[in-house]
Design a protein that fits this description.
The protein is of the alpha/beta class. The protein has two domains: 199 residues, 3-Layer(aba) Sandwich (Rossmann fold), CATH 3.40.50; 36 residues, no CATH class.
Length: 256
Protein backbone atom coordinates (compact mmCIF):
# COMPACT_ATOMS: atom_id res chain seq x y z
CA UNK A 1 0.00 0.00 0.00
CA UNK A 2 1.12 3.54 -0.73
CA UNK A 3 0.99 5.33 2.62
CA UNK A 4 3.76 7.80 1.76
CA UNK A 5 2.78 11.41 2.44
CA UNK A 6 6.07 13.05 1.57
CA UNK A 7 5.43 16.24 -0.37
CA UNK A 8 1.95 16.60 1.17
CA UNK A 9 0.96 19.21 3.74
CA UNK A 10 -1.69 18.56 6.38
CA UNK A 11 -3.75 20.74 8.68
CA UNK A 12 -4.74 18.87 11.84
CA UNK A 13 -7.34 20.52 14.08
CA UNK A 14 -7.49 19.90 17.80
CA UNK A 15 -3.86 18.81 17.70
CA UNK A 16 -2.92 19.86 21.22
CA UNK A 17 -4.13 16.61 22.83
CA UNK A 18 -5.75 13.23 22.36
CA UNK A 19 -6.66 11.93 18.92
CA UNK A 20 -5.61 15.15 17.19
CA UNK A 21 -2.13 15.08 18.67
CA UNK A 22 -1.69 11.37 17.89
CA UNK A 23 -2.88 11.97 14.33
CA UNK A 24 -0.41 14.81 13.77
CA UNK A 25 2.45 12.59 14.95
CA UNK A 26 1.30 9.71 12.73
CA UNK A 27 1.12 11.94 9.65
CA UNK A 28 4.60 13.22 10.49
CA UNK A 29 5.87 9.62 10.53
CA UNK A 30 4.49 9.25 7.00
CA UNK A 31 6.51 12.26 5.91
CA UNK A 32 3.84 14.97 5.74
CA UNK A 33 4.49 18.62 6.49
CA UNK A 34 2.26 19.68 9.38
CA UNK A 35 0.19 22.68 10.35
CA UNK A 36 -1.35 22.02 13.78
CA UNK A 37 -4.31 24.02 15.02
CA UNK A 38 -5.76 24.48 18.50
CA UNK A 39 -6.78 27.21 20.92
CA UNK A 40 -3.87 26.25 23.20
CA UNK A 41 -0.86 27.86 21.58
CA UNK A 42 1.53 26.71 24.32
CA UNK A 43 0.73 23.05 23.73
CA UNK A 44 1.10 23.46 19.98
CA UNK A 45 4.53 25.03 20.36
CA UNK A 46 5.59 22.16 22.62
CA UNK A 47 4.40 19.68 19.99
CA UNK A 48 6.43 21.08 17.08
CA UNK A 49 9.82 19.52 18.02
CA UNK A 50 8.15 16.11 18.41
CA UNK A 51 6.60 16.42 14.95
CA UNK A 52 9.96 17.21 13.37
CA UNK A 53 11.61 14.37 15.26
CA UNK A 54 8.86 12.00 14.04
CA UNK A 55 9.65 12.86 10.42
CA UNK A 56 7.78 16.02 9.45
CA UNK A 57 10.02 18.12 7.15
CA UNK A 58 8.29 21.22 8.55
CA UNK A 59 5.84 21.91 11.35
CA UNK A 60 3.87 25.08 12.04
CA UNK A 61 1.52 26.06 14.87
CA UNK A 62 -1.71 27.94 14.19
CA UNK A 63 -3.66 29.15 17.24
CA UNK A 64 -7.37 29.50 16.42
CA UNK A 65 -10.77 28.81 17.93
CA UNK A 66 -13.02 26.64 15.78
CA UNK A 67 -16.10 28.20 17.35
CA UNK A 68 -15.05 31.68 16.13
CA UNK A 69 -16.21 31.41 12.52
CA UNK A 70 -14.82 34.69 11.22
CA UNK A 71 -11.60 34.42 13.22
CA UNK A 72 -11.04 30.94 11.81
CA UNK A 73 -11.68 32.14 8.28
CA UNK A 74 -9.05 34.86 8.72
CA UNK A 75 -6.55 32.46 10.33
CA UNK A 76 -6.53 30.04 7.37
CA UNK A 77 -6.77 32.60 4.57
CA UNK A 78 -4.16 31.75 1.94
CA UNK A 79 -3.18 28.47 3.60
CA UNK A 80 -2.35 25.71 1.12
CA UNK A 81 -2.67 22.10 2.28
CA UNK A 82 -3.66 18.82 0.66
CA UNK A 83 -4.94 17.14 3.82
CA UNK A 84 -7.48 18.39 6.38
CA UNK A 85 -8.21 16.50 9.59
CA UNK A 86 -11.22 18.15 11.22
CA UNK A 87 -11.17 17.14 14.87
CA UNK A 88 -12.70 18.96 17.82
CA UNK A 89 -13.80 17.99 21.31
CA UNK A 90 -17.42 17.39 22.11
CA UNK A 91 -19.53 19.51 24.49
CA UNK A 92 -20.15 18.57 28.13
CA UNK A 93 -22.74 15.89 28.74
CA UNK A 94 -26.36 16.44 29.65
CA UNK A 95 -29.93 15.78 28.57
CA UNK A 96 -30.95 17.41 25.31
CA UNK A 97 -34.21 18.52 26.92
CA UNK A 98 -32.28 20.64 29.40
CA UNK A 99 -29.92 22.38 26.96
CA UNK A 100 -30.22 25.96 25.77
CA UNK A 101 -30.47 26.99 22.16
CA UNK A 102 -27.34 29.10 22.71
CA UNK A 103 -25.34 25.98 23.58
CA UNK A 104 -26.67 24.19 20.51
CA UNK A 105 -25.74 27.17 18.33
CA UNK A 106 -22.21 27.40 19.78
CA UNK A 107 -21.62 23.69 19.29
CA UNK A 108 -23.00 23.80 15.75
CA UNK A 109 -20.58 26.64 14.97
CA UNK A 110 -17.61 24.80 16.48
CA UNK A 111 -18.31 21.69 14.41
CA UNK A 112 -20.38 22.22 11.27
CA UNK A 113 -19.62 25.86 10.54
CA UNK A 114 -15.88 25.45 11.15
CA UNK A 115 -15.80 22.46 8.81
CA UNK A 116 -17.63 24.46 6.15
CA UNK A 117 -15.21 27.38 6.49
CA UNK A 118 -12.14 25.14 6.33
CA UNK A 119 -13.25 23.15 3.29
CA UNK A 120 -14.17 26.28 1.36
CA UNK A 121 -10.84 27.89 2.24
CA UNK A 122 -8.63 24.87 1.61
CA UNK A 123 -10.27 23.23 -1.40
CA UNK A 124 -8.51 25.46 -3.99
CA UNK A 125 -5.11 24.25 -2.77
CA UNK A 126 -6.23 20.63 -3.01
CA UNK A 127 -7.55 21.08 -6.53
CA UNK A 128 -4.37 22.86 -7.54
CA UNK A 129 -2.27 19.97 -6.20
CA UNK A 130 -4.52 17.31 -7.74
CA UNK A 131 -4.76 15.63 -4.32
CA UNK A 132 -7.15 16.17 -1.43
CA UNK A 133 -8.04 14.24 1.69
CA UNK A 134 -10.57 15.46 4.25
CA UNK A 135 -11.19 13.37 7.37
CA UNK A 136 -13.60 14.34 10.14
CA UNK A 137 -13.28 12.75 13.58
CA UNK A 138 -16.82 12.29 14.90
CA UNK A 139 -18.32 9.66 17.22
CA UNK A 140 -20.20 6.37 17.12
CA UNK A 141 -23.22 8.46 18.16
CA UNK A 142 -23.59 9.18 14.44
CA UNK A 143 -25.22 5.74 14.26
CA UNK A 144 -26.26 5.05 17.86
CA UNK A 145 -26.97 8.08 20.10
CA UNK A 146 -25.27 7.91 23.48
CA UNK A 147 -27.41 8.57 26.55
CA UNK A 148 -26.48 11.78 28.36
CA UNK A 149 -24.75 13.37 25.36
CA UNK A 150 -27.74 15.06 23.75
CA UNK A 151 -26.03 18.06 22.17
CA UNK A 152 -23.07 15.98 20.99
CA UNK A 153 -25.37 13.37 19.44
CA UNK A 154 -27.26 16.07 17.57
CA UNK A 155 -24.25 17.88 16.19
CA UNK A 156 -22.25 14.74 15.35
CA UNK A 157 -25.21 13.51 13.32
CA UNK A 158 -25.34 16.85 11.51
CA UNK A 159 -21.62 16.58 10.76
CA UNK A 160 -22.06 13.13 9.25
CA UNK A 161 -24.83 14.38 6.97
CA UNK A 162 -22.74 17.43 6.04
CA UNK A 163 -19.81 15.17 5.17
CA UNK A 164 -21.92 12.79 3.09
CA UNK A 165 -23.36 15.74 1.17
CA UNK A 166 -19.85 17.09 0.56
CA UNK A 167 -18.74 13.71 -0.75
CA UNK A 168 -21.23 14.12 -3.59
CA UNK A 169 -20.00 17.60 -4.50
CA UNK A 170 -16.22 17.57 -4.13
CA UNK A 171 -14.26 17.12 -7.37
CA UNK A 172 -12.52 13.85 -8.31
CA UNK A 173 -9.31 13.34 -6.39
CA UNK A 174 -10.59 15.11 -3.27
CA UNK A 175 -12.18 12.65 -0.84
CA UNK A 176 -13.98 13.11 2.46
CA UNK A 177 -14.58 10.44 5.10
CA UNK A 178 -15.50 10.18 8.77
CA UNK A 179 -13.86 8.23 11.58
CA UNK A 180 -16.16 7.27 14.46
CA UNK A 181 -14.17 6.68 17.66
CA UNK A 182 -15.51 4.53 20.44
CA UNK A 183 -14.30 4.82 24.04
CA UNK A 184 -10.78 6.24 23.72
CA UNK A 185 -8.29 7.26 26.41
CA UNK A 186 -8.44 11.04 26.06
CA UNK A 187 -8.97 14.04 28.33
CA UNK A 188 -12.52 14.19 26.99
CA UNK A 189 -13.28 10.64 28.18
CA UNK A 190 -11.69 11.37 31.57
CA UNK A 191 -14.06 14.30 31.97
CA UNK A 192 -17.09 12.23 30.99
CA UNK A 193 -16.13 9.47 33.43
CA UNK A 194 -15.86 11.97 36.28
CA UNK A 195 -19.14 13.69 35.35
CA UNK A 196 -21.06 10.41 35.15
CA UNK A 197 -19.65 9.25 38.48
CA UNK A 198 -20.67 12.52 40.11
CA UNK A 199 -24.17 12.39 38.62
CA UNK A 200 -24.90 8.73 39.41
CA UNK A 201 -23.01 8.17 42.66
CA UNK A 202 -20.97 5.34 41.15
CA UNK A 203 -17.20 5.26 41.35
CA UNK A 204 -15.17 6.14 38.27
CA UNK A 205 -13.92 2.55 38.17
CA UNK A 206 -17.51 1.31 38.08
CA UNK A 207 -18.35 3.73 35.26
CA UNK A 208 -15.44 2.41 33.20
CA UNK A 209 -16.36 -1.20 33.95
CA UNK A 210 -19.81 -0.47 32.55
CA UNK A 211 -18.31 0.89 29.36
CA UNK A 212 -16.00 -2.07 28.91
CA UNK A 213 -18.81 -4.56 29.45
CA UNK A 214 -20.27 -3.37 26.13
CA UNK A 215 -16.97 -3.57 24.19
CA UNK A 216 -16.06 -7.01 22.76
CA UNK A 217 -12.38 -6.01 22.74
CA UNK A 218 -12.75 -5.44 26.51
CA UNK A 219 -10.51 -2.37 26.63
CA UNK A 220 -10.40 1.31 25.75
CA UNK A 221 -8.79 2.41 22.49
CA UNK A 222 -5.58 4.37 22.46
CA UNK A 223 -5.42 7.63 20.48
CA UNK A 224 -2.69 6.03 18.34
CA UNK A 225 -5.14 3.39 17.12
CA UNK A 226 -7.53 6.07 15.92
CA UNK A 227 -4.65 8.02 14.39
CA UNK A 228 -3.61 5.01 12.32
CA UNK A 229 -7.06 4.80 10.72
CA UNK A 230 -7.15 8.55 10.06
CA UNK A 231 -3.69 8.41 8.49
CA UNK A 232 -4.74 5.58 6.17
CA UNK A 233 -7.70 7.65 4.95
CA UNK A 234 -5.29 10.53 4.28
CA UNK A 235 -2.98 8.36 2.20
CA UNK A 236 -2.91 7.58 -1.53
CA UNK A 237 -3.97 4.01 -0.67
CA UNK A 238 -7.44 5.29 0.33
CA UNK A 239 -8.08 7.15 -2.90
CA UNK A 240 -11.31 5.23 -3.68
CA UNK A 241 -12.78 5.52 -0.16
CA UNK A 242 -15.24 8.38 -0.27
CA UNK A 243 -18.23 9.36 1.87
CA UNK A 244 -17.66 6.56 4.37
CA UNK A 245 -18.11 6.56 8.15
CA UNK A 246 -15.67 4.07 9.68
CA UNK A 247 -16.23 2.99 13.28
CA UNK A 248 -13.16 2.32 15.43
CA UNK A 249 -14.93 1.15 18.55
CA UNK A 250 -13.72 -2.33 19.45
CA UNK A 251 -17.03 -3.77 18.22
CA UNK A 252 -19.21 -1.87 20.73
CA UNK A 253 -21.93 -0.81 18.28
CA UNK A 254 -24.58 -3.36 17.49
CA UNK A 255 -25.64 -1.75 14.22
CA UNK A 256 -23.94 -2.41 10.89
Amino acid sequence: MDLDLRGRRALVCGASAGIGRATALQLARQGADLVVLSRRADRLEALLPALREAGAPSAQALAADLSDTEGLRAAVQGLRVQILVHNTGGPPGGRLLDESTDKLARTFAEHVLSAQVLVQALLPGMVEAGYGRIVTVLSTSVREPIDGLGVSNTVRGAMASWSKSMSRELPPGVTINNVLPGFTTTERLDGLRTAIAGRTGRSEAEVEEGWLAAVPEARLASPDELAGVVAFLCSPAAGYVRGASLAVDGGRMRSI
